[in-house]
Amino acid sequence: MLRVLIADDHEIVRRGIRDIIESHPGWQVCGEAADGQAALDLAIEQQPDVAVLDISLPVLNGIIVTRRLRQESPRTNVLLFTMHDDDETVSGGLAAGARGYLLKSDSEDHLEAAISALGANRPYFSSFVSELLLEAAISERKRSRLESFTMREIEVAQLIAEGNSNKQIARLLKISVKTVESHRAAAMRKADVRTAAEFVRFAIKHNLIRA
């Protein structure tokens, strides 16, 4: 039995993925989540074979969830199923450990093929992503700035961009305000920004939050 977890903040998208999985003999939906923290908690509990994640998830985005799953549920293969096709987001997702990357504009047949491939421990990429990877192999790849962020810095970055104060972030992440300030300074330095407004633009550009 191939066990699949679905995480997307749009119920209609989750329903469409679920219908594909449930129509396939030998596949089973073992959990659904509408935000990244719930997806992470479910994946750690259920240990699915495949996790189908959107990138722009609330609370924890899909890239940080992918990083965490690589550490805490290494047998789970992550398929990033998203509308984002810019090279920095693709690079960030693959660097985080995703084994598949599929665009929501791709057909249902591609989604079924992607889940099947990851279930067999094979990677799967949309044709657009495959072309990006080919270009990167031929020419020197430009590193995504997100790749230099630690997991905690990405968490703090998302919460900053969502408008949380240092005290609110400290409470949410159960760390000290001083530690938040340190991560905030490091994240802003790596993003090469100086103001909160510039940081919000950076977060939107890199799909840490929705515009």
UniProtKB/TrEMBL annotation:
<dbReference type="InterPro" id="IPR058245">
    <property type="entry name" value="NreC/VraR/RcsB-like_REC"/>
</dbReference>
<dbReference type="InterPro" id="IPR039420">
    <property type="entry name" value="WalR-like"/>
</dbReference>
<keyword id="KW-0238">DNA-binding</keyword>
<dbReference type="InterPro" id="IPR011006">
    <property type="entry name" value="CheY-like_superfamily"/>
</dbReference>
<keyword id="KW-0804">Transcription</keyword>
<feature type="modified residue" description="4-aspartylphosphate">
    <location>
        <position position="54"/>
    </location>
</feature>
<dbReference type="Pfam" id="PF00072">
    <property type="entry name" value="Response_reg"/>
</dbReference>
<dbReference type="Pfam" id="PF00196">
    <property type="entry name" value="GerE"/>
</dbReference>
<keyword id="KW-0597">Phosphoprotein</keyword>
<protein>
    <submittedName>
        <fullName>DNA-binding NarL/FixJ family response regulator</fullName>
    </submittedName>
</protein>
<feature type="domain" description="HTH luxR-type">
    <location>
        <begin position="142"/>
        <end position="207"/>
    </location>
</feature>
<feature type="domain" description="Response regulatory">
    <location>
        <begin position="3"/>
        <end position="119"/>
    </location>
</feature>
<keyword id="KW-0805">Transcription regulation</keyword>
<dbReference type="InterPro" id="IPR000792">
    <property type="entry name" value="Tscrpt_reg_LuxR_C"/>
</dbReference>
<dbReference type="InterPro" id="IPR016032">
    <property type="entry name" value="Sig_transdc_resp-reg_C-effctor"/>
</dbReference>
<dbReference type="InterPro" id="IPR001789">
    <property type="entry name" value="Sig_transdc_resp-reg_receiver"/>
</dbReference>
<dbReference type="GO" id="GO:0003677">
    <property type="term" value="F:DNA binding"/>
</dbReference>
